[in-house]
Amino acid sequence: MKTRYALLLPALLLAACAKKAPAPEPASQATPAPAAAPAAAPAAPAPAPAAPGANTAAAGNAPLPTPEVSTENMSDEQREIAKRQAKLDYSNMEQGYMADPSAQWASAATASSNYSDSYNASKATGKVDGNYWSTKDSDIGFDSLEVSFDKPVNATQLRVAVAESYGLEGITKVELQDTDGKWNTVWSGVNTVKPDHRGPRTWFVQPIEKTAYKAKAARITKSNNITTTRLQVDAVQLIGS
Question: How many CB atoms are located within 10 Å of the residue 146 CB?
Answer without folding.
Answer: 21
